[in-house]
Design a protein that fits this description.
Strand order of the largest sheet: 3-2-1-4
Order of helices and strands: EEEEH
Low-confidence stretches: none
Strand content: 35-45%
Mean pLDDT: 92
Number of helices: 1
């Protein structure tokens, strides 16, 4: 039985620290990686924690902003087509299921 585990890098996010530590750090910004994970075992491929939705990779810094939220929004996504799940799977020679 062959088991393989992959860490996929799905861009980064610039977040208000209070989104990570509720009640603390409001207004402070932190840049964090956006991971996703792929497990291949027993002839199955399992993808979990799938990063950000595709609309976050358009270059719009307000892609994750709540309606009426002032600048800067609580989270600013950074990444391109290669950082989407489809882009990350392609680096492994895989495609998302249809």
């Amino acid at each position: 039985m062959d088991t393989r585990f992959f860490l996929l890098t799905c861009g980064t996010g610039d977040l208000d620290q209070s989104a990570l530590t509720p009640g603390r750090g409001a207004g402070a910004r932190v840049r964090i990686p956006i991971p996703a994970y792929l497990l291949q075992t027993d002839g199955r491929t399992i993808l979990f924690d799938t990063g950000m939705p595709d609309f976050c990779y358009t270059g719009d810094p307000r892609a994750l902003a709540h309606e009426g939220e002032p600048d800067p929004p609580w989270a600013i996504p950074y990444g391109g087509a290669a950082d989407t799940i489809a882009g990350q799977l392609a680096t492994l020679g895989l495609r998302p299921p249809m």
